[in-house]
Amino acid sequence: MQYLKFKKPKKLNKLEFSILIGLISAIVLCFLNCYKTSENISRNVLRLHILANSNSKQDQALKLKVRDEILKNFNFNSFNNDLEKSKQEINEKIPQIESLAKKTIENEGYSYDVAAKLNNSYFNTREYDGFSMPAGFYDALRIEIGKAEGKNWWCVMVPSMCVPASNKKEEAFETFNATEKDLLKKGYKTEIRFACLEFFKKLF
């Protein structure tokens, strides 16, 4: 009976070992910087999430009707990228937001309940009009329609990106610093970074 012979792994010399340690250190440092930047983004962003009752075509269309009325009647662009002021104003407007959403739903012939609240919760990496938002914990205005078991529609309220005009979104994007913009820009490099970040954040 023949046995396979395995060669012993070659020992690294001092130079090779130093290069390996340097490479590992560079990767770890890059990841830590990326993680720190993504955390800073999530702390300074306020999101809007509207959850449909279900994934049926009717419920998804209803969700978009509610979205249109919310964006038309509440001027989120007036927040001027002030996160704390924005959260305070939204808290004060929650009864009005719920009332408008409920009225819109009834006008469409449905009787779903509506619940709106500000909370801080975990979101996976999501693409948004030419850039990506990293996974993490974000403050968000969450509007739940009925059972809220359907796919959600979302946008960024602070900085103000919940607007139809693309130039406004570009202006809001400029509020991020250079490091943040580099991380947010959509592309292959960003996808790899976010995949690592999402794995790490879910792990811990």
General description of the model:
The chain is an alpha+beta fold and 204 residues long. The protein has one domain. It is 50% helix and 19% strand. The chain is built from six helices and six strands, in the order H-E-H-H-E-E-E-E-E-H-H-H. The chain has helices at 14-43, 57-73, 83-107, 166-173, 178-184, 188-203; strands at 46-51, 114-123, 126-128, 131-133, 136-145, 152-158. The strands form two sheets. It has a four-stranded mixed β-sheet with strand order 2-5-1-6. A hairpin with a 2-residue loop joins strand 3 and strand 4. Helix 2 packs across helix 3. It is elongated and about 75 Å long. It starts with 13 loop residues before the first helix and ends with a helix.
Short description:
By secondary structure, the protein is of the alpha+beta class. It has helices at residues 14-43, 57-73, 83-107, 166-173, 178-184, 188-203; strands at 46-51, 114-123, 126-128, 131-133, 136-145, 152-158. The strands form two sheets. A four-stranded mixed sheet has the order 2-5-1-6. A two-stranded antiparallel ribbon has the order 3-4.
Distance between the termini: 49 Å
Unreliable spans: none
Which strand order does the major sheet show? 2-5-1-6
Total DSSP E strands: 6
How many domains, in number, for the residues? 1
Overall pLDDT level: 78
The percentage helix is: 40-55%
Specify the oligomeric state.
Answer: single chain
- Structural class determined from secondary elements: alpha+beta
Total of helices: 6
- Biggest β-sheet, characterized? 4 strands, mixed
Helix and strand element order: HEHHEEEEEHHH
The outline comes out as elongated
The radius of gyration is: 23 Å
Which strand-content bin applies to the residues? Answer: 15-25%
